[in-house]
Structure formats: C-alpha cells, structure tokens
Amino acid sequence: VQLQASGGGSVQAGGSLRLSCATSGNIFSIKIMAWYRLAPGKEREFVADMDREGITNYAGSVKGRFTISRDNAKNTMYLQMNHLKPDDTAVYYCTAKDFAADVYWGQGTLVTVSS
User: Residues 98, 29: contact at Cβ < 8 Å?
Assistant: First the structure.
C-alpha cells in the first residue's frame, strides 16, 4: 500500500483546509485509514480514522471541526478541517492498516495556522 498526502498549506485562524490522501497498491487489504499529526515539541497525535464500513472516530480536540471522508472511486481519503486554530499547526500524516495489522504511512503534509 502506498499513500500520498497533499493539501497542506498556511491559513489564518478560523480558516479551512482539505487534506487528501491518495492510495495505491493493494488497497483491498486496507482495514482502516487514519490521520495523525505531529506538532513541534509534541508527541504524535491521533486525529481521526475511518474503517471499511465508514465508521469514524475523532480526537476530542478536533471533533466538530474536522471531517474524515473517502471517495472509493478515486481511492482517496480526505480530511476537511474547518475553524482551524494555531494549535492545529502540525505535519499531518495519513496511515492505513491492513488485515495483517501492517501499518503504512504517507510522507506528511504541513499545515500552518497563524493567529
């Protein structure tokens, strides 16, 4: 499984961005996909995930502001981020876990939110 994240950028607080994660390879083996983020000086943080049935989970810090979704026809996962805050500044990574519990990571895309 290969993952390619994109869509990061710089935005002012209150703004929006949509991240994309294009998948390729053995995508039928994917059980769950997720977004994580890594901010300077902080530990890696779970953001949101979605399983094959479309069931989603969100970190409390983003619930109500971020929405994870996917387009099966495009083999792409998205993260719509609204009402962005400076604390959302981080490198965002998309991940995929397959049924063998192997985890794959994309290269990350930087989101910078200025106050």
Answer: yes
| CA gyration radius, the chain | 13
Question: The tokens 């409390």 sit on which residue?
Answer: 60
Give the pairing type, strands 30-38 and 45-51: antiparallel
CB neighbours of 63 closer than 8 A, spacing ≥ 6?
A: none
> Partners of 94 in the beta sheet?
35
Residue carrying structure tokens 């981080």? 90
pLDDT digits (tens, 9 = 90+) for 75-111: 999 999 999 999 999 999 999 999 989 999 999 999 9
Q: Give the E-state strand segments of 1-115 in sequence order.
A: 2-6, 9-12, 17-24, 30-38, 45-51, 56-58, 66-71, 76-81, 90-98, 103-105, 109-114
